Amino acid sequence: RRLGTADGPLAGRRVLVTSGPTHEPIDPVRYIANRSSGKQGHAIAAALAALGAEVTLVTGPVTQPDPAGVRVVPVESARDMLDACRAALPVDVAVCAAAVADWRVASSAAQKLKKAPDGDSPTLTLAENPDILATLSAPGPDRPALMVGFAAETEHVIAHARDKRARKGCDWIVANDVGAAAGTFGGDANTVTLLTGDGEEGWPPLDKTEVAERLARRIAETLGPAP
Ligand code: CTP
Ligand code: CA
């Protein structure tokens, strides 16, 4: 089908989703990154498209197939991801599911670093990356009507998620328990709590596709039909 021409409760709505890790170069052959399969973000993009939304998926390097009916913009670094997100605006909703690297190497090397004969190891100086969720959530003419972030936590899940929601200025946080008993990176199971301004909804353990479908339905209910 053509993008954005489908029927469904999100027909006529523009949506941005971030997914996957980012790769921050050390030199042309090495990088630092977060662990992320992109499963959850890609499933959210697919679920929103299935409800009729026109979806742009900005994704770091993953092995997931491109979801059907979604415009996919591949990126490497956090700064590239922010640029690609800005280029996708305006949107009605943005869902930031990417595991963005918090730091990049302050000055990555133009040539491959070589081992020193004396055994000295290089020292990497890090610089903080832009916060994409916080940047897109900041007040302004291009701010999406609904900003959704994720909080993957191993302990004090709800407390950390409440704090993140306030700090980043987003509307909703999907708090994700990645502790030992719950969902694990790269796995299929996910135990989430949705924090909106109006309350906190504990969802039963679901696989990532089901979390995506439930989140997409929840977004569609909240937005209502496009004007
Ligand atoms: N996020 C983002 N850009 C960043 C860092 C995080 O868009 N540079 C988004 C993630 O996509 C997620 C949310 O912010 O939706 C929370 O990410 P998380 O790593 O849990 O939050 P941080 O503020 O980086 O806090 P922490 O110190 O726990 O890593
Ligand atoms: Ca982080």
TrEMBL record:
Keywords: Decarboxylase, Flavoprotein, FMN, Ligase, Lyase, Magnesium, Metal-binding, Multifunctional enzyme
Catalyzed reactions: (R)-4'-phosphopantothenate + L-cysteine + CTP = N-[(R)-4-phosphopantothenoyl]-L-cysteine + CMP + diphosphate + H(+); N-[(R)-4-phosphopantothenoyl]-L-cysteine + H(+) = (R)-4'-phosphopantetheine + CO2
Region (Phosphopantothenate--cysteine ligase): 15-227
GO molecular function annotations of the record: FMN binding; metal ion binding; phosphopantothenate--cysteine ligase activity; phosphopantothenoylcysteine decarboxylase activity
Entry superkingdom: Bacteria
Named cofactor requirement(s): FMN; Mg(2+)
Binding site for CTP: 102, 112, 130-133, 150, 164, 168
GO biological process, one term: coenzyme A biosynthetic process
Annotated cofactor note: Binds 1 FMN per subunit.
Residue ranges annotated for the DNA/pantothenate metabolism flavoprotein C-terminal domain, each copy included: 10-221
This protein's GO CC annotations: phosphopantothenoylcysteine decarboxylase complex
Pathway annotation from the record: Cofactor biosynthesis; coenzyme A biosynthesis; CoA from (R)-pantothenate: step 3/5; Cofactor biosynthesis; coenzyme A biosynthesis; CoA from (R)-pantothenate: step 2/5
Enzyme Commission (EC) number: 4.1.1.36, 6.3.2.5
Family: In the C-terminal section; belongs to the PPC synthetase family. In the N-terminal section; belongs to the HFCD (homo-oligomeric flavin containing Cys decarboxylase) superfamily.
Role summary: Catalyzes two sequential steps in the biosynthesis of coenzyme A. In the first step cysteine is conjugated to 4'-phosphopantothenate to form 4-phosphopantothenoylcysteine. In the second step the latter compound is decarboxylated to form 4'-phosphopantotheine.
Entry protein name: Coenzyme A biosynthesis bifunctional protein CoaBC
Organism from which the protein derives: Roseospira goensis
Lineage: Bacteria, Pseudomonadati, Pseudomonadota, Alphaproteobacteria, Rhodospirillales
Gene designation per UniProt: coaBC
Span within the parent record: 177 to 403 of 403
